[in-house]
Amino acid sequence: LDVKTRWLIKVAISACCQYEFALRTHIRKAVANGCTREEIEHAILLVAPSGGFPRMMEAVLVLRDELGDH
């Protein structure tokens, strides 16, 4: 897997597990490794079917806090 894909997977895992500190760190590192906001958001949205809507929404709020509200 390429670097960007690995960071997007880490974002999704952190979101699903509700590890907020790890999620914040992984979002920052994903951006630093070339991931776009849209790619990170898409990875987080994929959490909903498996992890549940509340976990996905909490991760979206963390993303907004980290990268600014859109």
Structural summary, described in words:
The structure is a single chain. The protein has 70 residues and is an all-alpha fold. The chain has five helices and no strands. Helix 1 packs across helix 3 (37-45). It starts with a helix and ends with a helix. 27% of the residues are buried.
Q: N- to C-terminal separation?
A: 29 Å
Q: Number of helix segments?
A: 5
Task: Identify low-pLDDT runs.
Answer: none
Helix content: over 70%
Which geometry do the CA atoms define?
A: globular
Task: Return the string of H and E elements.
Answer: HHHHH
Beta strand % = under 5%
Radius of gyration: 11 Å
Q: For the report, how would you describe the main beta sheet?
A: none
Structural class comes to mainly alpha
Number of strands: 0
| Average pLDDT for all residues | 96
Assembly form of the protein: single chain
Primary descriptors:
single chain, 70 residues, 5 helices, globular
Furnish the topology, listing elements before pairings.
Blueprint lengths: L2 H15 L2 H13 L4 H9 L1 H5 L1 H15 L3
Helix pairs in contact: 1-2, 1-3, 2-5, 3-5
